[in-house]
Fold each of these.
Amino acid sequence: MKLAFIGGGVMAQGLIKGVLDSSLAKPSDISVGEIDQQKCSELSKRYGVMVDTNNTKVVENGELIILAVKPQNLSEVASQINGMLTADQTVISVIAGARISTLVELLGHQPVIRVMPNTPAQIGKGMILWMCSKKVKSEVAKKTQSMLKTLGVEIQIHDEQYLDMATALSASGPAYVFTFIEALVDAGVFIGLPRHMAKELTLQTVLGSTQLAIESGKHTAELRDMVASPGGTTVEALLALEEGEFRSTVMNAVIAAYEKSLSLGGE
Ligand SMILES: NC(=O)c1ccc[n+]([C@@H]2O[C@H](COP(=O)([O-])OP(=O)(O)OC[C@H]3O[C@@H](n4cnc5c(N)ncnc54)[C@H](OP(=O)(O)O)[C@@H]3O)[C@@H](O)[C@H]2O)c1
């Protein structure tokens, strides 16, 4: 598949690596429009792809045009390529918060796919939700799906409101998890563990617990109960979490992110 990226940063490179590693595309199938000259040379050296600082030149080379710039650069990029896109080209946007209707309007182009990844996608462990506009052909949706699979677990949705919900849960989620991890490490240090040990113990505990929840298929309450023996240490800690309103704090955090996501989208 012929891919043209606009923006060659972290997310674009995650995708480029993914499609090259899985042989979905060859370096000669990929071109990247990137304003930073130094990043251009890195991209061409690291992946052997075609790079150009001129986005309009790059767009001509792709059947899938992937917009991977920061939200504040969307209008500028869209105005550069508006009027250039042909009916057999589809635009895929990974830009947080950019709605399908906004993309269609800014680009003057109907076939558009909106993707909501998260940062673990950089190492192929992401959670990716995506949605097609009505004008996206089914074979293009299939190609997009195979490309997104290289970033992690993908789910195609057909109702855009789930993308706002995913923004608050899976897209912002790594920040919540990293904060939890940091607190656990600091707690380990507080009670006397060397920091490197506290970090290793925490990371493996979070990773292992997640894998156990996935692989066992058991309810998390059941898995928690297996750790908390009567009158023991764990239940003592669980009481402290309840007193600190841990669960309602986490829920309120996600709700706050969701409300912010709606307000940024103009609802
Ligand atoms: N990183 C993630 O894990 C992640 C997760 C979810 C969603 N996203 C979304 O993915 C998008 C890209 O994020 P990112 O982390 O990959 O950002 P990034 O690393 O900053 O990459 C964006 C790249 O685009 C370049 N650029 C800026 N304006 C341009 C223009 N007019 N033409 C061509 N290139 C231009 C930037 O160059 P300069 O640095 O010189 O400006 C930068 O190299 C964002 O909209 C973000 O919301 C990212």
Amino acid sequence: MSFDLLRYTGHVFVDAGIAVVETQIGKPCTEIDSGSLRLLEEWLLEQYANPPMRAYLSIHFPNSPWCNFNPKIPAERRRANQLTLLRAYEAPLLEPAAACPFCGRTAQFLADKQHIPLLSSAACLVTAPYGRVGTPVCGYCLLAIQFYPLGTIKATGKPLIWWTPNQKLLQRLTSIHFKKLQRIIALRGEKVQSLDWPRSRLLESAKLVVDTIDDKREFCDCIGYHFTNYGSGPDFKQYFLPHQLLDFWWDVKMSSATVREVHAGIEREAWATPKQKKRPLEEDELESMSLRNRYYEFLSEAFMSPDWERRAKLVVRKFFLQTKNISRNSFDLAELFLRRVSGMEKYRLEVIRKAADSIADLVLDHGEKRWLTNLYMKELRSRELMNYLLRCQRRLCDAKRPLEWENVLQLLDVSSADENPLGDWWLVRDLLLMRILERVGQTNAPLVRELEVMEKEEVE
Ligand SMILES: [Zn+2]
């Protein structure tokens, strides 16, 4: 049997509230009947009576019956005000009738910013003929919204929440925040601890979903909302997470053990190191929940840009190309990323791989390590890269295994060797170097050690 009391609406606060309800009750919202609503109501009242949660609610619903603890208001009246919010679906329809902006049902309640975040205050009139105070909403959407704070974590003092059009995915992402918030309250006791680095918090939860899910069909674009209307005005930020990143992480999960290990190593290295000092274990756990991950921060920053596909290519230079841990280079990993996230053509990547393999053969079969060190030791300019490839080609012609020169020009996006490469030629250099290092790393350990020493001296 299916019910239509609580429903997803496409609006962040209603949807997040329903995702919390589904997490708590362990079944989809279409199975929630009026009896379940009463049980959920009891559970919510219990959660919000907890002192740390009560204090946290003031940045969600300022001055609402959840956090207005004026001692002059008797406890019974406070409870009655809370139940008015939770049972507005039993209230008469508003006169004159108005549609709920979230679901379209007839409204039963006039809400303001103490009931729904980012609305205006109760004193603001809607400027229209017969204007009235507040936003008309139906009782079910109002009820759903009262649950949403349990699907947030507090990051840099403000709630951080997920929204995505896929309901299953939203429920999975919200349940991670739900569990984390419960854990923080259990560890800290007196208050809801604020975590740092909201972008790292969002991407780590998205990664956890990819790692635990069995089916990628749920993946779609996601948005992290970071906001509050506590204080003098609304404060709102949104972080975009394209489905292409989830697809890429899924591909990594399905890849060879080498690709998975290299990616896991890159992720691990990108975490900030916790401060080493003697303190209780719960402090350690709270700090580890708050750490920065440079890889996640960089990706999220790139996705803020309208041309994020181009900006995301820099991940290859900053994280995938490993000049210190040479055995941790994987062209396959970079290829997966560039195809999935940056939309790079397979053909072009194949040409780069073949060119790099031919050059690696000169290093490995003929002992000519200059072809590696010339790429490795300096940041080439675009013209220098062209000259390097011309020299490689001459040598490969001598060795009777030339590159297909037409392809080399294509990979640099030029029509002749006289033209200066523009665009992403730097990425071509990084990919050539990555592939050569990968090949050398597999077969010539002494040379790898020599390069690592050179890198160390360079740093010193
Ligand atoms: Zn509604």
Amino acid sequence: MPELPEVETIKNELKPFLINKRIIGVKLENKKIIGYPKPKDFLKKIINKKILNIDRKGKYLILKLSENYNLTFHLRLSGRLIYDENLEDKVKYTRIKFLFNKGTLSFSEPRLLGRVYLYPVDELPKSLSSLNNLGKEPLMPEFNFQYLKTKIKNRHTNIKSLLLDQKIACGVGNIYSDEALFCAKIHPKRKGSSLKDEEIKRLVKCLKKIIKIAINKKGTSISDYLRPDGKVGSFQKYLKVFRKEGERCIRCNGKIRRIKINNRSSYFCPNCQKEV
Ligand SMILES: [Zn+2]
């Protein structure tokens, strides 16, 4: 569930606490949380590495460590990173905890789908090879009309699924694709190839606008997502269609509907977003 705005918020808010901190210990609660390398090697190699910077690529959070190592987190659906200045064990579902001289970083993940990876910068593990194939992110200047048109013009897949494809709109997930399609007045089931130039232009604009506001509002706390200090984001107050089935459309007073596309719920206004 954490999408680009949530992971960007986590990055921004962890930075002041984590940069220049040295990892002096690790408390591993569940081995499954480690995606790479083997837990034994992970625990050995991580010790004494210093956090130099924090990056984000799509929905991945990348801690740049000393000795040219990356510590990469993929939060998946319910993963949380909680920083705690004190050493209290108050974070539920903590699967791994990093200890510093002062403070701890807990990776909590109720569903155990998220993973953490440790690897030398130039030796990306196979399980992370998708990091090399990510598309442009909506806030990049290169994410423009030409870019999106090239990506979708020959595709007979629906636009909702195309937006969820990380090779096309990197960082976009279920929430922001629904909100952007509503903003651009495009039905989620329209085929990529059927979109007119005007619609693609609107969609690019809407994606940029919504992602930008969502970052300003520190993300959407609608199910599991919390910020590193345990506080909520506030973009949920600005959602127009996502999880609003049966509610009124703010534009036309129509009723918001929910449909399943590739097994995932999609919310839209059938009046503002026509299928043909
Ligand atoms: Zn409407």
